[in-house]
């Protein structure tokens, strides 16, 4: 990525060798406020709202650094301080934050906020034993609030809430479904296993994709 953020990958070595420079700097009063209190280590103790404001300020400046940055503000220092604030706010290490910011420079806050939200629980129907519609009705009768996953999946169900443990229902114990993330189903759809193929599965644990491969052609596949 080359824009006002620069090449963040070039900062990685600098971050490792100059960790002290990642500590928040003294910005102008119109940018940063409420820094009076200190923690046990003598560093400014900032709450989440203060960090959020700082992050918004840094992103605003970096989006048009030439026209928005104060004359005495160094771009590299601005980026490093932004990384420090993001790490403090979202509890990421500096290495990972640099990678994420390099991938999503303008959407970084949205990406980090999305990671704070619990992902939905999804299950995959074993169509060798039942149909998705029949499974859904059986689980609804047990107090499970669910819907079909997405148009791209003919076997997935998304569960919003449940009055019973999903891993202990008679349907689960009978092998009518498996708990499996939606993203884990996509590789098998993309793979589109065909009859007679031999498939080498190098990531078989706990076996969600492996069993999905077998189910795809009524277990008439050689799965290694």
Automatic annotation (TrEMBL):
<keyword id="KW-0949">S-adenosyl-L-methionine</keyword>
<dbReference type="InterPro" id="IPR023273">
    <property type="entry name" value="RCMT_NOP2"/>
</dbReference>
<dbReference type="GO" id="GO:0070475">
    <property type="term" value="P:rRNA base methylation"/>
</dbReference>
<dbReference type="GO" id="GO:0005730">
    <property type="term" value="C:nucleolus"/>
</dbReference>
<keyword id="KW-0690">Ribosome biogenesis</keyword>
<dbReference type="InterPro" id="IPR054728">
    <property type="entry name" value="RsmB-like_ferredoxin"/>
</dbReference>
<protein>
    <submittedName>
        <fullName>Uncharacterized protein</fullName>
    </submittedName>
</protein>
<dbReference type="GO" id="GO:0000470">
    <property type="term" value="P:maturation of LSU-rRNA"/>
</dbReference>
<dbReference type="InterPro" id="IPR049560">
    <property type="entry name" value="MeTrfase_RsmB-F_NOP2_cat"/>
</dbReference>
<feature type="binding site">
    <location>
        <begin position="203"/>
        <end position="209"/>
    </location>
    <ligand>
        <name>S-adenosyl-L-methionine</name>
    </ligand>
</feature>
<dbReference type="GO" id="GO:0009383">
    <property type="term" value="F:rRNA (cytosine-C5-)-methyltransferase activity"/>
</dbReference>
<dbReference type="InterPro" id="IPR029063">
    <property type="entry name" value="SAM-dependent_MTases_sf"/>
</dbReference>
<dbReference type="Pfam" id="PF22458">
    <property type="entry name" value="RsmF-B_ferredox"/>
</dbReference>
<dbReference type="InterPro" id="IPR023267">
    <property type="entry name" value="RCMT"/>
</dbReference>
<dbReference type="GO" id="GO:0003723">
    <property type="term" value="F:RNA binding"/>
</dbReference>
<dbReference type="Pfam" id="PF01189">
    <property type="entry name" value="Methyltr_RsmB-F"/>
</dbReference>
<keyword id="KW-0694">RNA-binding</keyword>
<keyword id="KW-0489">Methyltransferase</keyword>
<keyword id="KW-0539">Nucleus</keyword>
<dbReference type="InterPro" id="IPR001678">
    <property type="entry name" value="MeTrfase_RsmB-F_NOP2_dom"/>
</dbReference>
<comment type="similarity">
    <text>Belongs to the class I-like SAM-binding methyltransferase superfamily. RsmB/NOP family.</text>
</comment>
<keyword id="KW-0808">Transferase</keyword>
């Amino acid at each position: 990525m080359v824009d006002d953020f620069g090449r963040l990958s070039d900062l990685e070595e600098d971050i490792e060798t100059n960790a002290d420079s990642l500590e928040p700097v003294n910005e102008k009063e119109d940018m940063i406020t409420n820094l009076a209190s200190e923690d046990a280590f003598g560093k400014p103790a900032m709450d989440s709202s203060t960090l959020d404001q700082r992050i918004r300020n840094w992103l605003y400046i970096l989006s048009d650094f030439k026209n928005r940055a104060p004359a005495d503000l160094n771009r590299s220092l601005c980026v490093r301080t932004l990384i420090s604030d993001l790490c403090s706010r979202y509890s990421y290490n500096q290495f990972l934050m640099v990678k994420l910011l390099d991938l999503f420079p303008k959407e970084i806050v949205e990406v980090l906020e999305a990671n704070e939200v619990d992902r939905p629980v999804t299950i995959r129907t074993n169509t060798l034993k039942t149909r998705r519609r029949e499974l859904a009705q059986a689980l609804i009768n047990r107090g499970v609030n669910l819907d079909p996953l997405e148009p791209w999946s003919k076997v997935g169900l998304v569960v919003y809430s449940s009055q019973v443990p999903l891993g202990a229902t008679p349907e689960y114990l009978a092998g009518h479904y498996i708990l499996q993330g939606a993203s884990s189903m996509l590789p098998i759809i993309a793979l589109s296993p065909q009859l007679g193929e031999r498939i080498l599965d190098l990531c078989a644990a706990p076996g969600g994709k492996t069993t999905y491969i077998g189910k795809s052609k009524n277990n008439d596949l050689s799965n290694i």
